[in-house]
Amino acid sequence: MTTTVSTTCPYCGVGCGVNVTLPAQPNGVVPPVSGDSAHPANFGRLCVKGSSLAQTLNSDDRLLVPHVAGHATTWDNAIDTVANKISQVVKEHGADAFAFYLSGQILTEDYYVANKLAKGFIGTANVDTNSRLCMASAVVGYKRAFGSDTVPCNYNDLEQCDLLIMVGSNAAWTHPILFQRIVAAKKQRPEMKVVVIDPRATATCDIADLHLAIRPGSDAAIFSFLLQESARLGLVDRDFIAQHTSHFQATLQQAIESTPDLSTTAEFCGLEEAQLATLCEWWASQDKTVTFYSQGVNQSSSGVDKCNAIINCHLATARLGKEGAGPFSITGQPNAMGGREVGGLANQLAAHMDFATPGALDLVQRFWQAPNMATQNGLKAVDLFQAVEEGKVKVLWIMSTNPMVSLPDTAQVKRALEKCELVIVSDCKAHTDTTVMADVLLPATGWSEKNGTVTNSERRISRQRGLLPPPGEAKHDWWAICEVAKALGFEAAFDYQGVHEIFAEHAALSAFENEGKRDFDIGHYRHISQREYDAFTPTQWPVPEGRPEGTERMFSDGHFFTGDGRAQFIPIKPSLPVQQTTEKWPFVLNTGRVRDQWHTMTRTGDAASLAKHTGQPYVALHPTDAQRLGINEGTLTRISSAYGEVRVKATLSNASPPGQVFVPIHWTQQFANAAVVSNLIPQTVDHLSGQPESKHAVVQLEAIQDLRYGLVVSRRPQCFPEALYWCAIPSDNGFRYEVIWPKGVAIESLKATFTLLETGQIQWLEYNNEATGQRRLACVCDEKLDTVMYFSNRPEAVSADWLLSNLVASEPLSEPDRVALLVGSPANVEDKGNIVCSCYQIGSKQIEKAIASGAESVEALGARLKCGTNCGSCIPELKHFIPKEMELSA
Amino acid sequence: MRSVIAASLRKERIVIVGGGMAGSKLAYELCQQQNKSTQITLIGEEKQLGYNRIMLSSLLANDITQADMALVDTQKMILSGAEIVSGDPVQGISAEDKSLSLHSGRTLYYDKLILATGSRASILPIQGASAENVIGFRNWQDVQTMSAMAGSQPVSVIGGGLLGLEAAVGLAKRGHQVTVFHRSKYLLNRQLDRESARLLQNKLETMGITFLLGESPQALLHNDQGVVSHIERADGSIMATNLVVMAAGITPEVKVAKQAGLQINRAILVDAQMRTSCPDVFALGECCEFDGQTFGLVAPIWSQINVLLAVLAGKHADFSVAPVPTKLKVSGVNLFSVGRIQPTADDNCIVFQDEGSNHYRKLIVNDGYLVGAILYGNVADGSWYFQLIQNKTNVSDMLDLLVFGEAYCQSKVA
Question: Which is one GO molecular function term here (chain B) (predicted)?
């Protein structure tokens, strides 16, 4: 008997419901997952990443036991090591010598106990998270405007609006299910207008009625201009402004100053006036407007201002708190929102209360019965890693995230982690760019094992359910934190009997002395039982006591969570990114995602099918720039900035204008040797949110010359110490690498290295082409494919699928297949059989076929196939093919 | 005037000298035309006539029987009115009175004379080579001599070219202990490169043949019956042998042509219509030379026959030289070679090598054109490469797949 369990997808912030069918046998194979038709985020749909989840369940790189200083050890020993070191540094250097660096991928309950331990018991607010990199600016934007970190909208608004403005979002790839809902809505109501504001022409532009390819970072000017156009055209809601907001006039005045007219604004944004005018026209004519914004807005040195520029427009026209309208920040991670709810950021205290919130410190201290309350903001991510490098933070516990890849200026992050006295990394993977920096490794449960709650971009809390038993010694993150807390002497406060107790406490804190003062209130759950928790259905917060149905939409009543209950207009001066191009750094670098990978590929990298769309990192650049730099499709290109260097292959694209290039964020050193784009990114942050300007750097590009481009397919993992570039492309069988060496690489010595371990009978096949510069080798061991190496002087596009499938072939290689090893694919070769007529190369199978179709004599065969008509020496053999009765009757 | 009338009334006499493949095939095709106004005479010096000389190797190797040897149906020719004279070599030709005399003393007159006298094995000027157990490998008689030997005797073949190897294999299959002397460093050095020759040698060695490369015999030593019993090698050592097969090349047979005063270089000079320097005398096959080339393979000779058939019928046709692929007629050995074998300075080589399955391919390309190909093991694409060379097909767009064969290149085009 199989059972089907509902859980939530671990990828983006849409938070789709997923149904997983568990095999009857404990070690059975989990079949492909399906979308949960009852989940309000996706109603049964799943994107390609979510659909491939079952493929990611059997990673061969799971971290299975704790490690201390490189050696496997017990949990008891690991926990003692961690607790002792924390005690020591806190005693010697104060609580701020410890820090958590968490992740939008851990569950709310994990977050809650980490936040509680640090802020209430160790006594530091050094609890930051990779959410800092994704939506910190959106949080501060909401808080400045609404007094609380409240997303007003829900997903239905995306379908019900008449004008959807998507800013800095390639939802088609990053939030595919929301995008599909939008596509479906637009199909039903073609009059619905979609505007995409993005310097790059992305897949999302496919449905755009208008694409504004703005100058990078100039977003705020558009909304500044929209605000003053709204006033000029009389679109503003005077009553709403008067009753529910503050600072409208000053904000409008600033908008008029910053963006006085269409032409100034269009020029600032690098747009045609007509394009901007069209947006204004649509903005004026469509009341039901949603502005949908994401990392393109947030990852900016002025990200918070951009958010407020957007919110200002919605406040002025009262386009929020109602159906089909609102400023809608879409988060990138499955539980960035949950982290925000518990206060798991260095500039938050807990449960949507800040250190500066009057009375909050006392309230939380009393609720937690906390002995060592932190009293002020801790260090935000970039500041935190700088403090680590400076030696101020001496123990850093990194959980479920990969800062060696995701934080800007990888070299700085590396220096910090090398300097840090104790780096603790909790992860489900054994090998990440960050686990290699760890002193203590703690094996964590992963999706399908973890149990708890997540909150998606529309405030909807859903359950992630533990479906499969944790492998090895893997433990839940909340358990590891609580064990350390107990070892530190805080037994009573961390003695949870189950994860539902943590959730209940979190809910209780949200309701504690709330009385409507704080937006985040899920008091309904404060006594939740194990059974109720297990039966939890997706619900949008707030869920205060007495309102179990939750809250579809916020601010419908015009009440905000500021001191006076009024929303705040924020005067905005649009500004461009801090770094501008120079002669030395002439290109603007933009970063982002590809369709089928997620974050640092620790999970999506396990699904071979997800590597089909984009198998390797790349730099996309405009053909005009490429031509000038001597770069062709596939040329290995060095991209350098003042901070570091990346080497990836070039792809030519018109998506961005000349002068702008794009590099995806996903590839780590586990998958490629020199593709971590953060190496190029400065640690420039928004001074309000601390969010790095990760989508913007100035760089230079250079075609690397004199190379040997290669493909390696092998039964074994291989390494390429001499390569300038290598990329491991996930595959179901064996190992596949794209490799680029300096021209002089010694191929003969590679042959020996790659087949070192084989003991069977080895045969080498070789192909050498002086005309094309191709050299290809295949190693066949006991008549089966072992390793293939292709070399070429220029980039070659060779499909490795067939080669990879051969690594698991059960039959010895046939002769045509041996040839195909050096081509990469089998030809549609007619199997001629043994050659009988060597003059015309006619084989036995062709002869048999001709006879079967009526050629009854040697002469007839000759007439049809020409066999035997030149030298005639095959005629005796041909005669043997003619069946006796035919010969007689002929 | 009378003689003119007489000539127009009687049949045109076409006499073909040489009953080898070229002569027999031409005679057969002329008979097939059933032209009542011609009289065909075919004269052969061998007793057997009209057989397929190429299959001597197979006959020697016992792969076929004597009944399989026929190239043309001589009975059919006789029934159609042709005269066939065998075992009676031509002694002389008189171009002046258009006649020829046979060994038997008979004199024949012709209106059109076609010389198809073929060639003979070159006998190297080695001391002792005149003994009767030093033979060539050219005709049925040679095969009969070899076939008559009882099994498992030491025999030697001089020359590791096509013919020598075919003889060696045939003798080895008959159970003899065969040693091949070959002057070059590798076998078939005019058709193969070193790599493919090595594969071939490996294969032939498994058949029990011993190779002495880069070596010619110093002397053939006779016993007291005057037959060769031993070979003295270059290093002075002596090895036993009961038969020596000379396969170190062929010499066009031009004796009667020379005596008749025809222009001769290495062979009888002909123009593109196969005309010799003498009116109404033509030549074809291994005895003719056109444009500085002589011919030892069957394909150009078949074209010569077609040209000659047209010319004799009063039509216009031109013979031209095309590259001809080489194959070795040894069962179990697949080998194909055409065009240029050794690359020149501005050629590029494309090589595929799978030693494990004895599969080797080398192509030579020049400026976008295929100019040479060597295939060993799998020769299925040989005729396609041959066409590419012959048709001067530009292969620039398929250089990356060319060596993998037609199927790959065509699927790329498709």
Answer: oxidoreductase activity
Please report the beta strands in A446-497, taking only residues with DSSP state E, as ranges in sequence order. 452-455, 460-464
Measure in Å the smallest separation between the Cα of A840 and chain B Cα atoms: 6
Residue B3 lies in a domain: no
CB contact under 8 A, B379 and A838: yes
- Which sign, positive or negative, has the C-alpha torsion A669, A671, A674, A675? negative
Smallest CA–CA distance, residue B349 to chain A, in Å, is 6
Q: Name the minimum distance, in Å, from the CA of A773 to any CA of chain B.
A: 9
The residue ranges of DSSP E strands in B195-242, in sequence order, are 210-213, 219-222, 228-232, 238-240
Residues B45 and B142 in one domain: no
Compute the distance between CA of residue B98 and CA of residue B26 in angstroms, rounded to an integer.
20
Does A797 contact chain B (CB < 8 Å)? no
Residues in B closer than 8 angstroms to A783, CB to CB, are: 356
What CATH number has the domain bearing residue A377? 3.40.50.740
User: Which of the 8 DSSP states describes residue B89?
Assistant: -
Write out chain B residues lying below 8 Å of A873, CB-based. Answer: 52, 54-55, 58, 329
- Average pLDDT value over all residues in chain A: 94
Q: How many domains does chain A have?
A: 6
Burial of B265: CB neighbours in 10 Å, binned 0-12, 13-18, 19+? exposed
Tell me if A822 and B352 make a contact (CB, 8 A cut-off).
Answer: yes
Instruction: Tell me whether A122 touches chain B (CB under 8 Å).
Output: no
Q: In CATH, what number is assigned to the domain containing residue A275?
A: 3.40.228.10
Q: Give pLDDT tens digits for A388-401.
A: 999 999 999 999 99
Is B359 in contact with A815 (Cβ distance < 8 A)? yes
In which domain, by residue range, is A784 found? 707-823
Q: Which residue of A has its CA nearest to B58?
A: A873
The whole domain housing B355 covers: 332-410
A824 Cα to chain B: minimum distance (Å): 11
Same domain, B305 and B374: no
User: Are the Cβ atoms of A873 and B71 closer than 8 angstroms?
Assistant: no
The verdict on A381 and A504 lying in the same domain is: yes
Looking at the domain assignment, is residue B96 inside a domain? yes
Cβ of A822 and B379 within 8 Å? Answer: no
Tokens of A201: 């022409």
What residues of chain A lie within 8 A of the CB of B404, using their CB? Answer: 819, 822-823, 827
CA-nearest residue of chain B to A814? Answer: B357
Among chain A residues, CA nearest to B64: A876
A-interface mutation test, from B383, B394, B398, most A Cβ less than 10 A away = B383
Please indicate, yes or no, if residue B321 is contained in any of the structural domains: no
At A627, give phi and psi (nearest 5°). Answer: -60, -45
Q: What is the CATH number of the domain that holds B111?
A: 3.50.50.60
Q: Which DSSP string do the residues of A642-670 spell out, in sequence order? A: SS-EEEEEEEE-SSS-TTEEEEES---TT
Phi-psi region of A196 (alpha: psi -120 to 50; beta: other; left: phi over 0): beta
Segments of chain A scoring below 70 in pLDDT: 757-758, 829-831, 833, 838-839, 873, 884-890
Distance CA B376, CA A331 (A): 64
Contact A771 B382 (CB under 8 A): no
Can you give the CATH number for the domain in which B376 is found? 3.30.390.30
- Tell me: the pLDDT tens digits for A164-189? 999 999 999 999 999 999 999 999 99
